[in-house]
């Protein structure tokens, strides 16, 4: 950071011979290369040769971590309050025994009693019963001696609560709290909203989240009845059985109402976490999406996928990040000393293709931070060459030389449109066989072709709400670490701020950690929600995906994500905004030690923060999906000067994150100018090595036909016209002809429809029963099957 006084690639200024202007002391140089590796120096962006981050991308973090992130540290005292509410009621019915000592029949009987207690008019009594149920969902931790034991009783109690019908009652109570106009108006009038304003909502959302998160965890040791309950619950959660709408729709309504300012007391972190896990459970995660994609390609008669993208990404290695400022100084000092010892140094520099005498970034980039990086990257020292490109001249043999893979990780692809453009421009047919052998037809292209064929076919369906996406982006903007106080249009800290603000330095530090952790979890949930919806919409129909993507673009999602990455991304990924002794369930099983300022600053000992790295990858994937095959949106990346921002993100040594950064750089290299490509050969080489190749894609040279003036309005309007035709045909019932509407095959939906019967049928109903029902034998088993 420039403000912190440390020299760094992104903020420091280089003077004269390359030494930093604010540091007069010469750096001590290592004696040999081995010592150089051992004495790696740290700057503001991290170690230049730091080890790969041992991060495994998944749908979510480990179950224990997902449970602990539900609670803020400010909620700590409520654990014992929940226990007190449970034990007061429990001891009146089962005196002298503990919960773990009862049998299954007694467990079920007490759960039924608590469920009946929710159906009371008194708010205070209802809240006490809800807290007792929450204590059950938290694993009745006072009877447990270890975290494994707590997790065992969480699963047991959650499936018990599901079996007695608790979730349906909770949804009804949540809907009642949402419609509580008195609480909303009181919160709007308050100058400062705190944790106490959302007590009832937080208790209900906590129970619901614990149930959804626990039930979706598939444990091989689960009994068959639990597996059956899980599938039934999954179906019900995605069906309009609760208040005639799915639970996710109700939660989206809460998000929209919160952002509109009508309900500022809603605990938004818990709402977003529950919404994310509901979508993940009902629609499926990334591996489920991959399986659905394979099945859909089989249904459409398309060839199988050339590889499993999830497996390929997991097997990739991270590339060496750009060198740090200290490495630049050290390298230049070493070269200066060698000039007096080696007479052939000038000849070596003339042969070196990485020579950096004229290295500078393209003028249109206008980023001093990137100029320093580019000048360095044009002449990388051997530490950086081993991952991306071999050295240009032979060096003495080394034992730690990396062996390169024999082939590229991805099979090349070519679109039908690319083949047509190639034939039209080149007017030759000699390479048709080569191109068609690698031809890849996506599901999206099939769907677009079908839409063009079915332009005159009237259909009907359900609509997609777009206000939810704008609300999510508003919260994401407020939670971004780069947002300033003046840009926070909404208060997302209502469910983390205590009633009484801290009075000591230690309390303020603890609250600061809690607030930062709270924002990080919100970013994690929103990024996962947006990515899941985009992927599922794209698999369901390409125009549903384009509809959502276009609204995100119009809501400035692209500059918002770039603003998020315009920070010290290594500091964000390695942030220590957690206090392990306050995490659930550790905090309820052990006597808490006395917190000190040193312990709060130290944080945990992990190499990185899982949720922050997860969020960064999700946001990069969203940005890729918004800009892929969209010339006007790609030019937005160029106009917003995203190249230096994305290049700094390459310092994170994690293969999956680097892959999506390189994809975003690849689509805009042809527009960044020849000088940029010349000065960033390391990045260009990494793109070639790690990103899938599209045959006939001239991305590295800039003479492609797409390098043309761009008209954002024309392209987006053309896409919007196609989307509106799709929506009017499928979702506008007023336009469609009822004779062409598809048959409803859902038994519950058909039985729920109100049918007007004519008068003559009602007069002859007995005759109809005798003739059509009683006189005909019916095999009910076959009918139900």
Share of residues in helices: 55-70%
Strand line-up of the largest beta sheet: 1-2
- How would you describe the oligomerization state of the chains in this entry? single chain
Rounded mean pLDDT score: 79
How many helical stretches?
Answer: 39
Count of strand segments: 4
Structural class: mainly alpha
- Largest β sheet strand count, sense and barrel closure: 2 strands, antiparallel
Q: What is the overall silhouette?
A: globular
Low-confidence segments, ≥5 residues, pLDDT <50? Answer: 1-48, 347-405, 455-463
Strand fraction: under 5%
Radius of gyration: 30 Å
Terminal CA distance reads 67 Å
Topology readout:
Blueprint: E1 14-15, E2 19-20, H1 33-38, E3 42-43, E4 46-47, H2 63-68, H3 78-93, H4 104-117, H5 123-137, H6 147-163, H7 166-178, H8 181-189, H9 199-215, H10 224-237, H11 247-259, H12 268-283, H13 286-299, H14 309-315, H15 325-338, H16 345-351, H17 368-377, H18 382-388, H19 416-426, H20 432-437, H21 443-453, H22 467-479, H23 505-540, H24 542-554, H25 557-565, H26 569-573, H27 586-589, H28 597-602, H29 610-627, H30 631-639, H31 642-649, H32 655-666, H33 674-679, H34 681-690, H35 712-731, H36 747-751, H37 759-763, H38 765-774, H39 780-784
Antiparallel strand pairs: 1-2, 3-4
Helix pairs in contact: 3-5, 4-5, 5-9, 6-9, 7-9, 9-12, 11-12, 11-22, 12-23, 13-23, 22-23, 23-24, 23-29, 24-35, 25-29, 29-32, 31-32, 32-34
GO biological process, one term: cytoskeleton organization
Domain Far11/STRP C-terminal: 434-765
Subcellular location: Cytoplasm
